[in-house]
Amino acid sequence: MVMSALSTSALSSLEAMLQSMMRGSGGGGGDDDTPVDDTLASPPPPPLPARPTPRGRRPSRRRVRPAAAARTLMSPPPSSSRSPSLSPPKEREDARTDDVSLLVEGLERKAVEVEAQLRRSEEENAALKRRMESYHIRWLQYEIRIKSLEEAFHEQMAALQLAQDAARRAEETAAYDRRESSEHHVDAPEEPPVRLWHGRDRMVVGARRSAVSRLGAEFRRQSHTLERGAAALVAEAPAAAAPSGGCPSSSAADDLKKLKAQFRAWTKDYKARLRRTKAELGSRDARRQGSCWI
Questions:
Q1: What pTM value is reported for the model?
Q2: CA distances from residue 281 to 119, 173, 236 in whole angstroms, order as listed
Q3: CB contact burial 97-118 (16+ within 10 A = b; e otherwise)
Q4: What are the pLDDT digits (tens) for 148-172?
Q5: By CB distance 3.0 to 4.6 Å, which of 160, 224, 246, 291 could disulfide with 134?
C-alpha cells in the first residue's frame, strides 16, 4: 500500500509540473483573447485510491520510480573507446589448459605412487619366497636327519636283540650243563676224574657267564653312549640353524656322519666278538664232551 501511494503522488506531481509548463508556454506566445482550456486551468484531480493488496503479498508487477527512469534515460551511453578485456573464448581456452595441466599432474603423481607400491610388493614377495625356500631346505635336512636317526635306532635295536638272544642261549646252555653235571654227579659220585671234570664244567659255566655279562655290559654302555650322542645332535641342530638364517650349518651333518661311523664300527666289532665268544664256548663244550667220553 505504501508503494502504491508513493507512485500515485509522484504521478500527480508530474501532472502538475506539465500543466504549469503548458501555462507558461501559452501565456508568453499569444494574446489575451485566446481561450484557455478549462481542464488545464482547473486544479488537478485528487489522486486515485490505491488498490488494496493483501498483507504479506507483493504486488504483481514492480513499478519503476520516475526519478530512476529519468536518470536512466538521461545517462549517456558507455563510450566505446574503453579498452575491452580478454575475449571469452580465449579465457575459456586458458581455463581449459589449466585444468588439463592439473589433471596431468595428478595422474603423474598417482602413477608414481602406484609404481612405488608395486616395487614394495615385489620386494616383499621376493623376501617371502626366499624364506619359503629356506624353510623347505631346513625341512628336507630335518627329514634326512630323522631318517638317519631312525636307521641308527633300528640297527641298535637289532644288535640289542642279537645280544639278548645270545645271552638267552648262553643261559640255557649253562642251565643244561648244570643239570647234566648234577645228574652225572649223582650217578657216579665216587669217580675222581668225573669230579675233576665237574669242577672244570663249573669253570666253563663261570667263564660263559662272565663272557656273556661282559658282552651285555659293553652293549649297554655303548647303547647309552649312542643315545646320548643322538640326543645331543638333535638338541644342537636348531641352535646351529638359528644364526645362519634358517639354514643349518655343516657341523651337525659332520657330527651325524661321525656318530653313524662310530655305530657301524662298534656294531662290526661287537658282532666279531660275539662270534668269537660263541666259538670259544662251542670249543669248550666239544672238549668237555670229548673228555667225558674218555
A1: 0.28
A2: 80, 10, 44
A3: eeeeeeeeeeeeeeeeeeeeee
A4: 888 888 888 888 888 878 777 777 7
A5: 246
In a domain, 51, yes or no: no
Which of the listed ranges 37-41, 150-154, 247-251 does the model predict with the highest average pLDDT? 150-154
CA distance 31 to 179: 193
Question: How many domains does the chain divide into?
Answer: 1
Cell (9 digits) for 150:
631312525
Range of the domain at 174: 149-293
Q: Is residue 210 part of a domain?
A: yes
DSSP line for the chain: -HHHHHHHHHHHHHHHHHHHHHHHHHHHHS-TTSPPPHHHHSPPPPPPPPPP--TT---SSPPPPHHHHHHHHHSPPPPTTSPP---HHHHHHHHHHHHHHHHHHHHHHHHHHHHHHHHHHHHHHHHHHHHHHHHHHHHHHHHHHHHHHHHHHHHHHHHHHHHHHHHHHHHHHHHHHHHHHHHHHHH-TT-HHHHHHHHHHHHHHHHHHHHHHHHHHHHHHHHHHHHHHHHHHHHHHHHHHTTTTT---HHHHHHHHHHHHHHHHHHHHHHHHHHHHHHHHHHHHHHHHHHHH-
Within a domain: 89: no
Query: Per residue in 116-136, pLDDT tens?
Result: 999 999 999 999 999 999 999
Which distant-in-sequence residues (6+ apart) come within 8 Å of 177 by Cβ?
Answer: 201, 204, 205, 285
Which residue type is seen at 27?
Answer: G
